[in-house]
Write a structure and sequence with these properties.
Blueprint (H helix, E strand, L loop, with lengths): L15 E3 L2 E3 L6 E3 L5 H7 L16 E3 L3 E2 L6 E2 L4 E2 L3 E2 L8 E5 L3 E5 L4 E3 L1
Antiparallel strand pairs: 1-2, 2-3, 4-7, 4-11, 5-6, 8-9, 9-10
Amino acid sequence: MDDVMKCPSCHSEHAYEDRGLWVCPECAHEWSTATEAAPEAAQEAGVRDANGNVLADGDSVVVIKDLKIKGSSSVVKGGTKVRNIRLQDATDGHDIACKIDGIGAMNLKSEFVRKA
């Protein structure tokens, strides 16, 4: 199996072809072979919020749901505005570094915020 197709989303080597589409069993991402070159362009598009808007360093975002803080009894309430975010390349999905008033420095997942 020298010609292994890797998943463009999670880079898993366990992808398989099913009726003209490639399927990743690890992240459930599906793509066609016609869009093989598109993953590189999609990665250049950057980090996207819950609504699909591209985020950039220095943007302001709003948390869309209550988020429990691991190791604490504190909660980041939905509707909290976070200013001056920094994007980072994280393997665990926490791709936004920021400071939240009253809580401090923390990392957020982009799927739980929307651009303000």
